[in-house]
User: What shape does this take?
Amino acid sequence: MKVAADRQLYFEPRIAGYDLLVHVPIVEQPSPDGFRSPDPAFQRAVDDRLMRELDERGLEAFPLHPAERGTWITDVEREVWARLAPAQLSLLPPSPPPPPDRRL
Assistant: This one.
């Protein structure tokens, strides 16, 4: 019981304030920086625990794809803008294409 209460006290207040959770996948072994453990097994255990905690709470994280690391910022920006865009934008017609460049 104490473990469940501690988890609730620890995770619930921290997660409640977020509108978007982003899951950054493991793509390489961590380098020793004096702060994080460089042990890949520990890194996987933390990732597994995070996913279990989210699943137990019925929460979803926006997944980033390991093979598409170069697009992560764009992917997250697109997701944030999709959540922030007013619903009325979908009622507007699409913008017309720009006129052709007639300069020679």
Q: What stands out?
A: Strands lie at 22-23, 62-63.
